[in-house]
Amino acid sequence: MKISLILGSVSDYSKVKEACDFFKKLDVQYELRALSAHRASEELDKYITENDKDVSVYIAAAGKAAHLPGVIASKTIKPVIGIPLKSSALEGMDALLSIVQMPSGVPVATVAIDGAKNAAILACQILSISDKNIENKLKEYKSEMTRQVLEAEKKLLKEIEMI
Ligand code: RP5
After folding, report:
1. pLDDT tens by residue, 78-132
2. Between 20 and 30 A from 114 (CA), which of 11, 85, 100, 144?
3. Structural domain boundaries, residue 136
4. How far is the CA of 121 from the centre of ligand 1 (A)?
């Protein structure tokens, strides 16, 4: 089983690289495709039909009138995470509203504008329900995050002479 990360355009790659880096760090299998819902709709449909049985979670990233996550959600019962991207004059609000306002019955779990890393973490959390190895790696990741936050707090408090 794998994570499928689909982009609305190859121009979106730089915005999702941190998700790819996170998957590599945790050694989680993923596949990257760029299949626009508007400009490659037949290829997108074919890809989902042929790969759905092997996909655990879809992540779809798109900017502007971002219909990609919703279209994918209409074709599968696997969880779909949408990443609205800032790629137009509307600063990503267009993509956010396009992705988050799904009709009842067809959910897309929407992360923040340009929130690729959280999308990757959420996808791994979904996989961790049935994968102990990913669960352990996520626990390590969260512990390290907490350690860094507390270290940063201590450094600040020392700098401003509160401790
Ligand atoms: C959206 O339009 C894509 O997801 C991308 O964010 C934006 C621009 O795409 P390109 O014109 O660079 O292919 O559909």
Report:
1. 999 999 999 989 999 999 999 999 999 999 999 999 999 999 999 999 999 999 9
2. 144
3. 132-163
4. 24
Provide residues with CB under 6 Å of ligand 1.
8-9, 11-12, 36, 62-64, 85, 87
Residue 56 pLDDT level (bands cut at 50, 70, 90): very high
Check whether residue 94 and residue 151 sit in a common domain: no
Site to probe by mutation for ligand 1, drawn from 14, 68, 87, 93 as the one with most ligand atoms within 8 Å of Cβ, is 87
How many helices (H) and strands (E) are present in the chain, helices listed first?
6, 5
- pTM score over 0.70: yes
Instruction: Kindly compute the dihedral angle of the four CA atoms of residues 142, 143, 145, 149, in this order, to the nearest 10 degrees.
Output: 140
Q: Same domain for 138 and 126?
A: no
Nearest CA to ligand 1 atom 1: 63
Residue 2, classed as helix, strand or coil, is strand
